[in-house]
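so my prof wants the structure for this chain in the tokens format not the other one, which i didnt know existed until like an hour ago. anyway here's the sequence
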Amino acid sequence: MAASAGTPIELANSAYSTLADNVALGRKRLGRPLTLTEKILINHLSQPQTQEMERGRSYADFAPDRVAMQDATAQMALLQFMTAGLPTTAAPSTVHCDHLILAKTGANIDLGVAIDTNKEVYDFLQSVSAKYGIGFWGPGSGIIHQVVLEHYAFPGGMMIGTDSHTPNAGGLGMIAIGVGGADAVDVMTGFPFNVRWPKVIGVKLTGTLSGWSSPKDVILEVARILTVQGGTGAIVEYIGEGADSISATGKATICNMGAEIGATCSVFGYDQHMSDYLTATGRADIAAAAGMVTEHLRADEGAMYDRVIEIDLSQLKPLINGPHTPDLAHKVGAALGTAAQANGWPLEISAALIGSCTNSSYEDITRAASVARQAKAHGLKAKCELLITPGSEQIRATIERDGLLADLEAIGATVLANACGPCIGQWERSGDITSKANTIVNSFNRNFPKRNDGSANTLSFVTSPDTVIALALAGRLDFDPTTDTIEAPDGTLVTLHAPTGEVLPAKGYDAGVNTFIAPPANGSHIEVIVDPLSDRLQLLEPFKKWNGNDFLNMPVLMKAQGKCTTDHISAAGKWLKYRGHLENISGNLFEGAVNAYTGEVGQGIDLVDGQTRPYPEIAMLWGKNKFQWCAIGDENYGEGSSREHAAMEPRFRGCCVILARSFARIHETNLKKQGIVPLTFEDPSVYDLIQPTDVITVRGMPPKPDQPVQCYIVKQRNSEQIPFTALHTFSEEQVEWFKAGSALNVVRQKVIDSQS
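here's what i got, hopefully its the right format
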């Protein structure tokens, strides 16, 4: 099916045509009522009659309806796809140019600079898209997740996307999973998407939101309860009458930030709010089709969940989470002020930011603007830098038409381009601010150190757009908009009334500038050129297959202490420009990792000569000398973004094994896809035994499904061997990835075999 600017009704009807029968089959095979999650997954199984469906154990092959890629990750994904040898993609696919636009001055100037600066990459992505039948959303279109919600998501569908916040589409009842580029290549080449059958966590919502509370507070509360690891290996399904009270875009906000609890994705059952949003965004035909199968787009009565959390929306108060982790929750006001004083967090706010893929809906902006109008009426302005990031061109055009941007600009706001910008490190700030500890508040989703502006001195707190505006007007982190007052220029004390918003625009959405480029009917004549001297793009060479030997006496390049997210492993910010050049981007490998032995960031001892060097330099030297090495991680290693560069870089430099106390789901899969063996300590305390000069031996390769691996800490001084057991999650199929050197090598061979 050719790529287009929206989901054709034929694609939705294709999914719905088998839904009833597959749901009935699932109930019969499992012998019980089904969750919505199970209904959608069963309907997308490659072989629903025979494939195992045991939660948390079975690996299953799925056939997603579509693939979406953002420009930073699309480069590597499409470079991999180009090696497969196919003339076109097997599944509808799109590329979205949203990550490479640096926020500095304002929308128009920043966008123009980005188009000039990134011309080589944009031209590459556009030409590859045209050649292989991929839809192309150019720079300025908006953030991938918002564009997908507006144009492609549909209830009961299944998609994968090369970004961890792909689950945003769950706001329209879609199973939408963030993956690495290699998974995208599988689906684009017509092969199944293989993933472990998830557990299902039910979040039962009762009551309704009111006052200053918003959908953002729901996911902040869930993050507080489950922590950044609590959703790992699970899909979070929202149920209860409270779920139906939340708008479709509010649901999307909740699903989007579900990535911060490690969840595979999140999903809501189909309801009137979804129907209204589909109709408002030009998809009334899909709303009508979904309406015919509504009973199969919601959980069955009596459906079983692995865990159920209950939240009374009527009792939910505004929250603000951070810094440095999205699960550290505080109630707004005095409680946060006390925590700030105890930890030395600056109370004065240096910048406030609203928008992004997480919170830039029409409803979000109308609520924020309602607070801004109150402020303007009393002569109040933001006491700090206030930045607005529209999530899409459609949102930008609509809120400009309806005067909402003017409301925000009246209190001092600057409007940025329709792009990720400050949410992913694409934000240029004055060194005078970032050189010292400073506090920012935002309505984004992720707040790891250096995430927003590249500075570890910036303390990022995540909250709702409404609360962001209120805090910007007060200028202080400990302000409580529900009770506190702000002094106006005339000396009066102003109480801000609770925000009010409109779920959908009364005048309909304004599409704005059309930035979509459809591929030609036949792109075989198009030549994709990659300059061999380019520092932005580099053609890939396949990783070598496993040599058949165990891994003996591997030096430990890096042992991480505490959080080691994909931002720590492969930083974004200034490194985004190298996302299409594996060798150059490998210059950031582990530069943010905290050395468990010294507490230093980004450097350790080179065991070859005993010298202290930056981790990227050690990795480069060991890679050139063809050393086989390993790295050690702490809890939830690889948390955060889906970027597969965090797996490709160590593989490129010679890494064979990553040992950790636990892994984040996406990163663990990405490591397997690239031919690295991710292992967890059966006894987590073994992590503490590994010393700087020790080497690691791993025997019994290749890993065997459901069987532990025998490992040894080898003391170089006396050759003493300390045995320990490691666990893994390899399936039979994934073992073949390892033996072949990467999953892509397996796909490539299958394509060759199919064409012979």
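also thought this was worth mentioning. The chain has 27 helices and 30 strands.
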